[in-house]
Design goal:
This protein has two domains: 12-58, Orthogonal Bundle (Arc Repressor Mutant, subunit A); 68-205, Tetracycline Repressor, domain 2, CATH 1.10.357. Helix 1 crosses helix 4 and helix 6 (107-118) packs across helix 8. Helices cover 75% and strands 0% of the residues. By secondary structure, it is mainly alpha-helical. The longest helix has 25 residues, at 12-36. It starts with 11 loop residues before the first helix and ends with a helix.
Length: 209
């Protein structure tokens, strides 16, 4: 049986089966990483046979690459929304809120991305050096401009963005640890994290006086 290709428009059944396999693969990759995941695990999770899976995808690598391609556009959207015409502190703390929402709503996707970076980003290195770098450069220029005109405190804009990534994605990538430490308070972890981080960054960003 010939493998389904992207050159022809898929039928409704093909589109549904492709989506089912990709959702199963997302869970398996986020749980086991790329090296630990197998096609058999993905097929079992999707409830399809391995030959049927290989009708839709050429290999494990093919599934992983397509998952990352789908993820990256969503992943960059919160930073794209940072608006040069907005109030600076509100724009930056709004970005923090959006990143925490991503960690809450897309924990598997966050772990998928983290695992890819830990592997040396073989599937997304061009995007990181191209699209992501260009976007960070654009937003860095905006934040630097705010600092230079006294609208926020002096700040290294790139490292500000890196720190936001680290602080917010921690709640997805290390959720098990966060819940273990918080115990009974874990239920409200994202609301509490949002309140803390917004307050913390606001104090650091406000210019003196």
């Amino acid at each position: 049986m010939a493998r389904a290709t992207l050159s022809s428009k898929p039928t409704r059944i093909q589109a549904e089966k492709t989506a089912l396999i990709m959702e199963a693969a997302l869970k398996v990759f986020s749980d086991y990483g790329f090296r630990g995941a197998t096609l058999d695990q993905i097929a079992d999770e999707a409830g399809v046979s391995k030959p049927n899976l290989l009708y839709y995808f050429a290999s494990k690598d093919d599934i992983h690459r397509r998952l990352l391609e789908r993820l990256l556009d969503t992943w960059l959207e919160p930073l794209r929304q940072l608006n040069a015409d907005g109030e600076p502190v509100e724009e930056i703390t709004g970005y923090i809120r959006r990143k925490l929402e991503m960690s809450r709503d897309y924990p598997q996707e966050s772990r998928l991305f983290a695992n890819e970076i830990l592997r040396g980003a073989p599937h997304v290195s061009e995007t990181l050096a191209g699209q992501l770098r260009a976007l960070v450069d654009e937003k860095t220029a905006i934040i630097t401009g705010w600092a230079e005109t006294g609208k926020i405190a002096p700040v290294d804009a790139r490292h500000l963005i890196f720190s936001i990534w680290a602080a917010t994605q921690h709640y997805a990538d290390f959720d098990t640890q966060v819940r273990a430490v918080l115990g009974p308070d874990a239920e409200n972890r994202f609301e509490d994290a949002t309140a803390f981080l917004v307050s913390f960054y606001t104090r650091g960003l406000l210019p003196e006086g």
